[in-house]
Amino acid sequence: MIHLKTLQLIRHTDSMNKSKEDIMTALKSNMPQQLREIKAEVSQVEIVTDTEEDYTYTRDRIKKLIDKAEESIDTMMLLASDTEHPRAFEVLGQMFKTTSDMMDQLMTLQKKRKELTQTSDQVGASAGNTTNNAIFVGSTTELQKYLSNNG
């Protein structure tokens, strides 16, 4: 009897010592290959869908903030001109900078969206465009001699 309990304890201890990688490998080997492929395809579609939803939401919010900032700037301009207080003009300048930063964020958002939604084929195609420029180093006299000999 003692031997059977010891054996069960050893088996239980061995199963607890398995690493997470061993368990995941065992689970993956039991999962059908077809299911793994479908899951990968769905993940890519979900990423694109989530990206588009987030992009639309963020873009709308930034545009609304810019509109409100422009209204606030108009109000602050009136206040600053009426009071002629230096602090009012300082705040007005900060509002201009903040609005400008929001516009930059809007453009950055476009760039990030393009990066996130671009497929690996599109990335490879855009990365393959290499332009080599030849530069002539010398005086104009040497250039004229070269052109007259080759022209």
Percent of residues in β-strands: under 5%
Kindly provide the radius of gyration, computed on alpha-carbon positions and rounded to a whole number of angstroms: 33 Å
Report low-confidence residues grouped into runs of 5 or more: none
With helices defined by DSSP (H or I, 4 residues minimum), what is the helix count? 6
Straight-line distance between termini: 103 Å
The CATH class of one domain is Mainly Alpha
Class per helix and strand makeup: mainly alpha
Going by CATH, the architecture of one domain would be Orthogonal Bundle
The CATH topology of one domain is given as Helix Hairpins
| Helix-strand string | HHHHHH
Give me a quick take on this structure.
By secondary structure, the chain is an all-alpha fold.
How would you sum up this structure, described in words?
The protein is mainly α. The protein has a domain at 33-117: Helix Hairpins, CATH 1.10.287. It contains six helices and no strands. The chain is flat. The relative contact order is 0.05. The mean pLDDT is 77.
Name a few traits of the molecule.
151 residues, Helix Hairpins, mainly alpha, 6 helices
Topology:
Blueprint: H1 2-17, H2 20-30, H3 33-83, H4 86-117, H5 120-127, H6 140-150
Helix pairs in contact: 3-4
